[in-house]
Amino acid sequence: MIRDDTLLGAGFADPVFQSQGAFRAVLAALAEPGLARDIGVGGVEAPAGLEPATAVALLTLADYETPIWLPAGLRDGPAGAWLRFHCGAAIVAEPGRAAFAVLDGTAAAPKLSAFNAGDDAFPDRSTTVFVQCAALDGGQAVTLAGPGIKGRRGIAPAGLRAGFWEEVAGNAALYPLGVDLVLIHGARLLGLPRSTQVEETR
User: Fold this and answer.
1) What is the C-alpha to C-alpha distance for residues 95 and 16, in angstroms, rounded to an integer?
2) How far apart are the first and last CA of the chain?
3) Which of 50, 103, 139, 152 has the fewest CB atoms lying closer than 10 Å?
4) CA separation (Å) from 113 to 107, 109, 140, 149, 171?
């Protein structure tokens, strides 16, 4: 495990201003599913294994009360150390315990169903899953519908495992329960809240 703080990359230089801007970008992405947003990386130095937008989003949203799930390869490396230092967040090994999670889009596991979908009393306490993709276009085309979308909207993120869109459809069927998804590449993110219906384009 990385323990030398001098090896950790920089976080926010202006925490109030930068976190407010990043928070608005995440909210806008979830309010208008399928429209990519630039989160504004600034001088944040994302650790190995985290896309810049993932690092900024977690720096904005996570704290000591919001456990984060990371893949085993990131948990005990620079990414885990960076998040512990800058966010004060606990890094958990069980997906179901996480408030936030970082998922490699090509990894076979865990499935979306392994994360906390909330419960009838507190559906808002579900996991928000950041899915790191190869690109936000150029992949399998799907069509979105639901709140925040006028009519229908097409997207085609690249670098997602086989069966991913079936999992997303199953997650939407749980609404008002289910996880919220944020697809990420580089400094850009694209929201897929649990209320969004998805259909693969044939």
Assistant:
1) 30
2) 46
3) 152
4) 14, 10, 21, 25, 7
The amino acid that residue 193 corresponds to is P
What domains appear along the chain, each with residue ranges and CATH number? Answer: 10-200 (3.40.50.11310)
Q: Residue 76 has what DSSP assignment?
A: T
pTM summary value: 0.92
* 89-141 pLDDT per residue, tens: 999 999 999 999 999 999 999 999 999 999 999 888 999 999 999 999 999 99
* pLDDT, tens digit (0-9, with 9 covering 90-100), for 168-188: 999 999 999 999 999 999 999
Q: Is 112:129 a contact under the CB 8 Å cutoff? A: yes
Can you tell me the distance from the alpha carbon of 80 to that of 149, in angstroms, rounded to the nearest whole number? Answer: 35
